[in-house]
Design brief:
This protein has 16 helices and two strands. By secondary structure, the protein is an all-alpha fold. Among the domains are: about 80 residues; about 190 residues, no CATH class. Strands 1-2 form a two-stranded antiparallel sheet.
Amino acid sequence: MKIAKLAFGLICLAILASNVVTMSRWSEARGVYDDICYLRQAHLFQRLGLGGLNTNAALDYDGYFEGKMKQIAFAEWQDPIRWPCHNPMPSGKDVMQYPPGTGFLLALFPEGHQVAPLYIAASLIVCGLALSGIAMARTLPSLVGAGLFGALAVYLMINPAKASYSVAPTMAVCAVAGFLTALWLTREKRSVLLIALIGLLLGASVNFRLPNALLAAGYAIYLAVAFLRMRTLSAFAQGLGFAAAVLVGMAPTLLAQAVNAGSPLATTYGSADVVAPAFDLAVLGQYVRDMQFVLIVLAIGSTAWLLRVGQGSVRQVALVVAGNLVVNLGFFLSHPIFTPYYIVPIAMLSLWSTSFARLMQPEQVRQAASLGREPTSLGVPSR
């Protein structure tokens, strides 16, 4: 086991080292509209501090964004109404559509050298958790599973995470939240602090991508059902703690929407970006041909397997993940727009949660599962 753990650990570190070398060579001027807009948000934070939450095009009086537009030969660089990633608001302001989190993280690094450090930092977090999973494995099958998944998770920080700067921090948050989800549910006593921390992380992920709000859906469903079944103060406290923490985590986005759109609940996205659900076979076909399909199959498969053979607290993790998958896949697969990373966050959150659930399961549960019995000595429900 020690040799196998060392081997898988070295594989993950080798992939990380290769990623770091590749990321260090990335250009921050690849001509992608999203990239330039995230960098503009970072520039505003560096120049204005918290005032950078205001993304009004009129604040580009130093010509930063116009210069970026000229670099990619954007024909209408002088007209803010035509700027990519920006939308006119009823107040007359032209503001950036994205939430502020990605730009804030980029602003932590020196201008001109922001993207690579962000990706490297996120990759270090993902690799650290992958190595933790390998170290925690107690059987050869669990070690092989943890090692293969860890290597895949580290590799994904290059592709498809490079598709959008918002994906890298989202991947890191999903890894940490998956670890904490398993820790929360496999403990004999459920901690309000842990579920609040999970809520804070998931709420914070909304600051990178608004659809990340759906990542909290499975937890909300689980906590609501648990309270309705038990009607205890503890169940109520956990649900309240989670909801409050989610709101605190996404507070920067709510504040940014109030500043830019006039209300915390008003969107800065244009009408072209807000589309009604509609199943489109062409879009579904694109997902089937994409790497995301593999991740979907792995997430659904690991969840179904835990629901079938999992015992006690492990099954509780599977129930949370199952609810999350249903809500998120239902939304994205009915969203008539395809991108190579839409389903990656929910798939990775699901896989991290189920992977750590198996690794953290209490010893008596693991022994009962191997003998085909239900656990009797744990203070957690087994169904």
